[in-house]
Each structure stands twice: as structure tokens, then as C-alpha cells.
Design brief:
2 domains, 76% helix, Arc Repressor Mutant, subunit A, 0% strand
């Protein structure tokens, strides 16, 4: 809080400096108690913020606020609303983050290991095609696929056909390693 804002607040609280300081302390303690009862994360900091806002308002207005305590009560209400919205945003963000965090379980690890093992069994050109084809995402994916086809001297349709054969080979390798990916053992030969 700036010195001139603090001085304006103290002057608005009482004509006597000592009594103004006591009133300031009393108001601050009440705010801390209010914010504590409302379970805010940092009641002390929020009380300081409320006092700062009151001091700034009094300094800006250059007119005496009839009841600084009543005005402070309104500021505290607004801060509680702001704090409530902030806490909701934090909870929603935490929930969204948790829902987007991939779950690593044994089955996923087993599948990833099988994919890597399957890729290592494939011909290098098929392995490279699969990795490069699926490396692009979003808007750049289409252009990436065009460039990949161009590098190999293929049309997009021919590239997709080679990709389909490479995926079929990867699937065959994974079935050998894991059985049927759906969890059933492979009962037929392809």
C-alpha cells in the first residue's frame, strides 16, 4: 500500500492517529476472521487486499466515505466472490488436467512394448513409413502426408495403400506377440 493511500485511509478512520491505527487493526482482524470462516486459501493476504482497495478508493475519491467499515464490508463481499470464482476455475482446471493425463497400466505398457517389438520386426521402409505418417497432427497433417508421398514418388492413394499394408504387417506381428489385441488368444492364422 502506498504511503499516501495509507494516510488517507487512516484519516478516514479517525482523526486521532492512535485511534485510527487501532481501528485499522480491528478492521483487519475482522476481515481475517471473515475470510477464515469462508475457508479462503490465504485469509491474511485477502484481508490485506481488501484494506489496500479501501485505501486506494479513499485516496482516489478525495471525498470522505461516510462509513469506511461498511464500504470495506462491500469490498470483502466482492473479494469473496472473486475468490470463489478463482477456486472454481482451479478445480475445473485440475479436473480437466487429471482427465487428460494418460493412465499407465500394465495392459497399456504391454501394448506399447508389443508395438515397439512389432515395429522392430518389420522392414525398415515400412517401419519408417508408419512412424513418419503418424508423426504429424492437426492442420499440418495433410501437407505432411503430401510431402511424404512426394518424397517416395507416390500418389496419396498409393501412399495410403502402402500404409495399409504396413499397418496389416504391424497388426500381424502384434498378434503373434500378444494374441488377439482384444484380449482373446488368436485362434486362426492369417
Amino acid at each position: 500500500m502506498r504511503a499516501e493511500s495509507l494516510q488517507a485511509l487512516l484519516s478516514a478512520l479517525h482523526t486521532s492517529e492512535r485511534e485510527a491505527a487501532e481501528e485499522y487493526s480491528l478492521l483487519h482482524k475482522r476481515l481475517v476472521r471473515l475470510f477464515t470462516l469462508n475457508r479462503v486459501s490465504d485469509p491474511q493476504a485477502l484481508a490485506d487486499e481488501a484494506m489496500d482497495r479501501l485505501a486506494q478508493r479513499i485516496a482516489q475519491e478525495h471525498a470522505a466515505i461516510q462509513s469506511p467499515a461498511a464500504f470495506l464490508s462491500g469490498i470483502a463481499r466482492h473479494l469473496l466472490q472473486e475468490e470463489g470464482r478463482r477456486q472454481v476455475r482451479e478445480r475445473e482446471t485440475a479436473h480437466e488436467w487429471a482427465s487428460q493425463t494418460p493412465v499407465h497400466d500394465e495392459r497399456n505398457e504391454e501394448l506399447l512394448s508389443a508395438i515397439e517389438a512389432g515395429l522392430s520386426r518389420m522392414k525398415p521402409d515400412q517401419r519408417d513409413l508408419l512412424r513418419r505418417y503418424y508423426s504429424a497432427t492437426g492442420k499440418e497433417k495433410i501437407e505432411h502426408h503430401r510431402q511424404l508421398a512426394e518424397e517416395r514418388g507416390l500418389t496419396l492413394n498409393a501412399l495410403r495403400n502402402r500404409l495399409m499394408r504396413a499397418r496389416r504387417e504391424l497388426d500381424r506381428c502384434m498378434r503373434e506377440l500378444l494374441g488377439d489385441v482384444s484380449g482373446k488368444e488368436n485362434t486362426h492364422d492369417e
